[in-house]
Design brief:
The chain has 500 residues and is of the alpha/beta class. It has two domains: 300 residues, 3-Layer(bba) Sandwich (FAD/NAD(P)-binding domain); 160 residues, FAD/NAD(P)-binding domain, CATH 3.50.50.60. Helix content is 31%, strand content 19%. The protein is built from 15 helices and 21 strands. Strands 2, 3, 4, 5, 6, 7, 18 and 19 form an eight-stranded mixed sheet that branches. It has a five-stranded parallel sheet with strand order 8-17-9-10-13, with no helix packed on it. The protein has a three-stranded mixed sheet with strand order 1-21-20. It is globular, with a radius of gyration of 24 Å. The N terminus is likely disordered. Its EC number is 1.14.13.-. InterPro entries: FAD-bind_Monooxygenase_sf, FAD/NAD-bd_sf. This is NAD(P)/FAD-dependent oxidoreductase. Keywords: Oxidoreductase.
């Protein structure tokens, strides 16, 4: 559908304009800027609230922080890295890689650091996104929201926490000024961050309590240093690097295939039990660490050192959530009591309603967070939303699968780039996904997820909302995801063109 309307009103005084504005300079935001420029869309600005790029790899600096998928598939497609020092690279190496990519790609002129978005509102009159920031106003024809999934730390509301006399911080806001040597430390949560933190701090703390609300499956992480000779081979023979990366990608694809059905995912349960038997000899502790659900129902954890760390003499697993804080005393939901000097929350991030959703106002002026809160987070092909023309969400609802999030974002960027190019070529001012294809797509997603291990594996995970709808994971294959995003299907979009 094409609607011809009068030309948009001109810019307001003091307003900086760009054809495309990208919000966020993490991995997906940097990928957006580079891929847009390479496609010939050069009028691009990137707004970043912090004073440096890096996203989650800038924010997360806790001990042991590293990727949980192989490094060869965790790299920009346009700038592969033959020099990873380990199969699972650490935070500092990843941050350096991102910063080097920015420098090598010449993105300095596009970056606007220390510029935080406070509101993005669609102007139907001007057919522009009007962006308010702490450093003035911007206007853009198209906006790419690349604010990431792991952005807003979540700390549970624990009665009495405000009265705790010691240090309290989230894993994503690690306080490096606190010396943990000899301290009584409590780690709250046993997710991906916690399984990396616990083995790192266990040797130095005096005593470590780990609060575990629900046991999770932990499988070994096959990490190892990449020999210098292999790194030289990857530099000199790119085909060898591509082959190794292909093997890593194929392994992830197989894992994703297993997770599409609870019945096939259950085949991994014996592997998880075997790992527990070998790494945890104490039958009581092992029972507390054995999940009552299928592997993959909750996010699968990879670590070869976490379970052994829990067996050390200075560590106690408390198999309950933290329920209350009474001064320096911590009380679990099971009645366990312990004293602590430091509390570290490894309690994850706000996924259902990320902060940026409250700052996006579409045609009707309502925040996207209100729309999502009234129903559930949804997007067409994880990317576009009705009522928000010319707006694109990277790593939006229902895109997560066992693969590199960067690779998924790059697949979306192929779609976004084609959308912007199509609008330019056809003289289109606004592209908006129509409600019929939007609804059909999301209904198909939910139907296909009913048999997945995430929905049907016997647990209650952060993948599900209060009604049991899965708003996080992709139900089909990686190949299908890439296929659906390879072509911009303009026939499913309402379009608005300027008068000639």
């Amino acid at each position: 559908m094409t609607v011809s309307t009068s030309a948009p009103r001109t810019a307001e005084a003091g307003e900086r304009q760009a054809h495309v504005v990208v919000i966020g300079a993490g991995l997906s935001g940097i990928a957006a800027a580079v891929k847009l420029r390479r496609a010939g869309i050069t009028d691009v600005l990137v707004l970043e609230k912090a004073d440096r790029v890096g996203g989650t790899w800038r924010e997360n600096t806790y001990p042991g922080c590293a990727v949980d998928i192989p490094s060869p598939v965790y790299a920009f497609s346009f700038r592969p890295n033959p020099g990873w020092s380990r199969l699972f690279a650490g935070q500092a190496e990843l941050l350096a890689y991102i910063e080097d990519t920015v420098a090598a790609s010449g993105l300095g002129d596009a970056l606007r650091l220390r510029t935080e978005l406070t509101e993005a509102a669609w102007s139907q009159e001007r057919r522009r996104w009007l962006l308010r920031t702490n450093r003035g106003r911007f206007a853009a024809r198209h906006v790419v929201f690349a604010t990431g999934l792991l952005h807003e730390p979540r700390i549970p509301a624990v009665p009495g926490l405000e009265g705790f006399p010691g240090e309290v911080f989230h894993s994503a806001r690690w306080n490096h000024g606190v010396d943990l040597t000899g301290k009584r430390v409590a780690v709250v949560g046993t997710g991906c961050s916690a399984v990396q933190i616990v083995p790192e701090i266990q040797p130095v703390v005096g005593h470590l309590d780990v609060f575990q609300r629900t046991a999770s499956w932990v499988l070994p992480r096959p990490d190892f240093p990449v020999p210098a000779a292999v790194r030289r081979l990857f530099r000199r023979v790119p085909a060898a690097r591509r082959l190794f990366g292909g093997v890593c990608g194929a392994a992830l694809a197989v894992l994703a295939l297993l997770m599409r059905r609870a019945g096939t995912a259950r085949l991994l349960n014996p592997v998880g039990r075997l790992v527990l038997r070998r790494q945890v000899r104490d039958p009581v502790l092992r029972a507390r660490l054995t999940p009552g659900f299928t592997v993959g129902c909750k996010r699968l954890l990879l670590s070869s050192t976490y379970l052994p760390a829990l067996t050390r003499a200075n560590v106690r697993l408390i198999p309950h959530a933290l329920a209350a804080v009474e001064g320096s005393r911590l009380v679990s939901a099971g009645g366990d009591r312990t004293e602590a000097d430091v509390i570290v929350f490894g309690s994850g991030f706000e996924l259902r309603l990320p902060p940026v959703a409250a700052r996006i106002r579409g045609r009707d002026g309502r925040p996207l967070s209100e729309t999502w809160d009234a129903a559930r987070p949804e997007a067409y092909r994880a990317t576009t939303v009705p009522g928000c023309p010319n707006a694109y969400l990277l790593l939006g609802p229902n895109i997560v699968t066992y693969h590199s999030l960067l690779a998924l974002a790059e697949a979306q960027l192929d779609y976004v780039t084609e959308a912007i190019k199509a609008a330019e070529a056809r003289g289109i001012d606004a592209l908006e996904i129509r409600r019929e294809p939007f609804r059909a797509f999301n209904d198909a997603v939910q139907r296909s997820l009913t048999s997945s291990v995430h929905n049907n594996g016997g647990c209650r995970s952060f993948y599900l909302d209060d009604e049991g709808n899965n708003f996080v994971t992709w139900p089909w294959s990686i190949r299908r995801l890439r296929s659906e995003l390879a072509r911009f299907d303009i026939e499913n979009y309402a379009t608005t063109s300027a008068e000639k």
